Structure formats: C-alpha cells, structure tokens
Amino acid sequence: MIFSEYKKLDGASISDALDSLNVRNRIPNLLPRSNNTKMVGYAYTVEYSLYETPSNSFKNAGNYIDNVKENEIILLNNNGLDYCTTWGGILTKMAEIKNISGVAIYGAIRDIEEVEKSNIPIFSAHTFMCSAKNRAQLITTETTLTINDVVINPGDLIFGDKNGVLVVPKDLIDICLSRAINIKKTEEKIITEITNGMSLEKARKKHNYAKPWENTDAI
Fold it and tell me: In terms of CATH, what superfamily is 24-168?
C-alpha cells in the first residue's frame, strides 16, 4: 500500500520532492503532540470559525469524527487560533477507538496529558485549556480548505513527522513518492561517500545533488 511506502520516508525528502514539482504545500507551525509522530493518510477536512456573538447553546460540533475512516487524517482549520481549542481528551479517545490515521489541528488543543499518551499521531499549532464550546462553530466538513495559502482538498495525502506536516495533492501522490525515494537514496549515497573520505563537493557532484529526484538508479 502506498501509505507504507510513504512511512519509510521523512518530511524533508517529501518536501524536496514537492519543490521539484513546484508545489509549496507545507502547513506552518504544526508540532507533534503524541507518542506517535509519523502519520500518513487521506485528508478529512474540517472547517471551524468563531461565533460573531457568543452562543448559549452547545452544538455538538465534534460529532463529525463519527464519519472519519481509518485511512483518513483529520485536518481541522481553526484559523491558527491559540486561545480556543477544537480538540481534547474525548476526541482523542474516539480517534483511538476508530483507529484513524492521524489528526492535524491548525489551532489549539487541550488535555495534553491524554494526547501525549496516545498512539494516534496528533499535531497542533498551539496548546491551551479553553474549550471551543459556545465560542467556535463547525462550518463544514469534506470541503476545500486554505491554510496560509496552502490548498487542501479531501483525499489529498497528508504526511506528518517531527519535521512538521505537509500536503501532497491527490494527483501527484505517485510521482511525489517516486521522487522522494530518489532524493532519500541519493542523500544516503552522499553520506556514505563523505563517511569514506570523499569531499562533500565531489560527493554532491558525483550523485547529482542539484537534482536528486532524477536519479532513477538510486532506488
């Protein structure tokens, strides 16, 4: 399965592969918060926004998780807000029960002790204690999101590790994987060369470091 091939890679190699395709799909400031720091899956997109005036009723906004599948990653946009959380302990437990592939919150999360113990990869821009109840509302799910000029469509591939979170457009998943493998193998060859005494300049030239994604013999 393509997910297992992506899991052998790292965010740096995939990022370089995206650069070679003139794609700049990196979501800024998302940090891993749980035990498991590598995630691969298809985007299940969620959009939140603040109420213009505070609400006095509870809307059960988090119930969207009932529709998320195992091979999907919740990508939730709360506009990067640092004071109003859209993820916590109950949703973490539900994600574990459903064995979903991961969570990325462009905003704040809470119940960090529970999150840290989880085997579900969970990323967020911030941590805080203040609930979104009656402060933010669910706008829509499974629609196109735009986060810091990065466009994310349902079904795009989401990758996360200690380097951060990036998005591979669904029509580039295969070619991005191929190029990322070539990049990673090329860098491994360069490291072997310099370990054996070659200069970095010569090693980079020998293995076409300028365009490592072209090195089909690197696989």
Answer: Ribonuclease E inhibitor RraA/RraA-like (3.50.30.40)
pTM of the entire predicted model: 0.90
CA distance 24 to 34: 26
CA dihedral sign, ordered 9, 15, 20, 24: positive
**3-class SS letters over 91-157:** HHHHHHHHCCCEEEEEEEECCHHHHHHCCCCEEEEEECCCECCCCEEEEEECCCEEECCEEECCCCE
Look at 208 and 197; give whichever has higher pLDDT.
Answer: 197
Q: Look at residue 210 and tell me whether its pLDDT is greater than 90.
A: no
The region that residue 137 occupies, defined by phi over 0 for left and psi between -120 and 50 for alpha, beta otherwise, is beta
Spatial distance between the Cα atoms of 157 and 169, rounded to a whole number of angstroms: 6
> Does the pLDDT of residue 24 top 60, yes or no?
yes
For 199, the 3-state DSSP assignment is coil
Burial of 46 (0-12, 13-18, 19+ CB in 10 A): buried
